[in-house]
Amino acid sequence: MTRYHQDLNGVDCHICHVTIMIRPFVEALRTFKWEPFRSIDLVEKLGYATGYARNFLSQATRQGLLIAESRKGKREKTFRANPSVVKEIVLKGGKEKEELLEALGLHSRYAGEYVALRGFRVVDHDPDLYRLGERALSDAEAQDQLVITNVGVPRKIVTIEI
């Protein structure tokens, strides 16, 4: 069941839980991208205490930030970032969005442009929002999985009211 509540600005929000675990999630995303990782990898590569790593994995999986996968013949689970979370974080905006885009490596490549994201993948980009929108939103089936956002400060600020 999705719970709706109001964030600090009084906006109804069902994705506010994302901010609770965003820092370790972004660190894991920056380090492992969308590749599977284990709890021991968090300890070795990110310097997390074993208990903290297990707690993070448990909470992040429960919140939908991570997807747990059982490896055949192995006792230990692997985890990978949930690509659907990207859209939620981008739509929420703010610091979390910027940290996510930086972790994905988009600032260095697409600064000042708009990008169309499907999960972790950039499917199109353009400095002109209208041109990008025409191309990216022409496929009606893909619209549910797509989010278009600016990377850094766009060259031209545009407001679209729907």
Secondary-structure blueprint:
Blueprint: E1 5-6, E2 12-13, H1 22-32, H2 39-46, H3 50-62, E3 66-70, E4 77-81, H4 84-92, H5 94-103, H6 106-110, E5 114-118, E6 121-126, H7 129-136, E7 146-150
Antiparallel strand pairs: 1-2, 3-4, 5-6, 5-7
Describe, in short, the structure shown.
With 162 residues, this protein is an alpha+beta fold. The protein has helices spanning 22-32, 39-46, 50-62, 84-92, 94-103, 106-110, 129-136, and strands at 5-6, 12-13, 66-70, 77-81, 114-118, 121-126, 146-150.
Overview of the structural elements:
This protein is an alpha+beta fold. It folds into 2 domains: 5-81, Winged helix-like DNA-binding domain superfamily/Winged helix DNA-binding domain (Arc Repressor Mutant, subunit A, Orthogonal Bundle), CATH 1.10.10; 105-150, no CATH class. It has helices at 22-32, 39-46, 50-62, 84-92, 94-103, 106-110, 129-136, and strands at residues 5-6, 12-13, 66-70, 77-81, 114-118, 121-126, 146-150. The strands form 3 sheets. Strands 6-5-7 form a 3-stranded antiparallel β-sheet, sandwiched between helices. Strands 1-2 form a two-stranded antiparallel ribbon. A hairpin with a 2-residue loop joins strand 5 and strand 6 (121-126). Helix 1 (22-32) packs parallel to helix 5 and helix 4 crosses helix 5. The protein is elongated, with a radius of gyration of 17 Å. The two termini are 28 Å apart.
